[in-house]
Design a protein that fits this description.
By secondary structure, the protein is an alpha+beta fold.
Length: 645
Amino acid sequence: MKKYRWFCLKFILLLFIFQGHIFFSNAQWYNPDNVNKKARDIYESAYEEAVQRRFTDCLLHLEEALRLDPKFVEVYLSRAGIYADMKNYPLSVRDFETAFTMDSVFSDTYLLPYSISLAGTGEFNKALYTVNRFLQTPGLNDRSIKAASYRKSVYEFALKYAADHPSGKYVFTPENMGDSINTTDLEYFPSLTIDGKKMIFTRRINKDEDFFESNLINGAWSKALPVTGKINTNLNEGAQNISQDGQWLIFTGCNYPEGEGSCDLYVAYKTKNGGWTEPENLGPTVNTDFWESSPSLSPDKKDLYFASSQPGGFGGKDIWVTHRQPNGKWGRPQNLGSDVNTDGDEGCPFIHADNRSLYFNSNGHMGYGMTDLYVSRKLNDSTWSKPDNLGYPINTIDDEGSLIVASDGSTSYYASEGLASRGGLDLYRFQLRDDIKAAKTLWVKGRVYDKKTKAGLPSTVELTEVNNRFLISRLQTDEDGNYLVTLPEGKEYAFNITRKGYLFYSDNFSLIQNTTDSFFTVDIPLQPIEPGAAIVLKNIFFDVNKFDLKPASLSELDKLVALLNDNPKLHIQISGHTDNVGQQPVNLQLSNSRAKAVTQYLISKGIQAGRLVAKGYGDTKPVASNDTESGKSLNRRTELNVVSN
């Protein structure tokens, strides 16, 4: 009997299942020696199938053994282990509970794996009760106590998380992306352009990983096809990230002949015919003799986040960031620090279009038992918030992989072996809870060009929060002047474009209120610095009927200081204008005082007074009708006019 019972226990352990107050009769009646001999022989055949991980055949044998002996308790326990290994936790729980109902004394050895299957269904209260009962078992060895104590801490975490994060009406309903994207092969690592219209993902066919792309057309995803160009090879490439504007593809290449280590980061660029250039290794500054993978590019293409096992981190694999330098080269990577990284493994970073929310996975932070998904928020250029676990049921007791979030801040995509899978890993879509969302992010795109010649101008684009002067992004247009910059909702932004030899462009986007727009198209004519050129300074602010400069004006004023310093012969006039509300003499005086306030600030920053003229025009030079509030707003303005250069 002892030999036979040890055989059953070994069977359960080999299936890796050693990884609510429902309890039953404590009477013990079951005797393995009384099992039907033919059923026992079939059971031993099932064991051989399980060792080879031929679970379908194994389950058929177990079913046949039960047909011959319906009271064969070990079959229920072993089948529960099979189902747990297949991640079919409801059926695993069913079989465990059947065995406990039949003979709880004989079956109590399996309380720990039973608790794990309970947790797999989200029954953390029952799981905690069960593991506590297991820990009361006399004579447990140290290994069992350690394993059970760990599971206990996991279940306690799950219950506390649920109490601290009430889900309200939130329902987790992952939706399979469908046959246009998913196949019987493995699909994973989705990446998406900011408009949500192009998805590139990794598909593994046999042992070869390649990139496929699908386009959203009239609300439906097109049949995924291999990306065109020179990226897909017979080598191992995967874990890709497409830039928000769709122009760059950064990915992981492993065992490439020119590689620095086992896996390196590469970049390819979109060609005018829609394909991709031959990949370029990011070089030894970024890549090391170790392992680099899972890149994620910030929306302004300034920061590249990735996972690496290189020395200098906190654990096996950490998340690092490299910053693109003014010369276009990538700087030496910096570790994101101990708030994000642990002595475990962190990976699959994804920086959202809001350039603030970083999603990643980790087995080092407290979670549900394996690798979980987390989000950390950027507090400043070098500091990140303590990561928040995304919670059950997004996270489970099993490993979670990569996650990306669309520009709306809520729609998310990930790979899963869900019950709706076409085969292994498929891509799914779901909505995040409000407390773990990113900021809904709009974007502005367009082309910068010379106002006279209409030729595209490579230029610098900056987006700054008006109230705190925090630089959200600084990016370069392409050679034709095309740009895309993201605008997270809920803030007011100063938008500036600069190029040497031209007046800068100034605009303002107020996204304090929710907007139904997704993007703005703004084509920008830059004016060469020459007499008669003029721009409206849209980020100079005054209170109503006052001429004191508001602090929110400082970013724009400092741009003006830089312009004058870069062009020491430049002489300008600052012109103040009002709408027609109020008496004309009062408006004239107010506009003059506001113009002087601007020139006085410039003088305080070292600009010679002789280069500056301040003049108010009151309401005499409207640029729009004063019959509407929007027209009045346009007429209340501060202008820069070039006098000479």
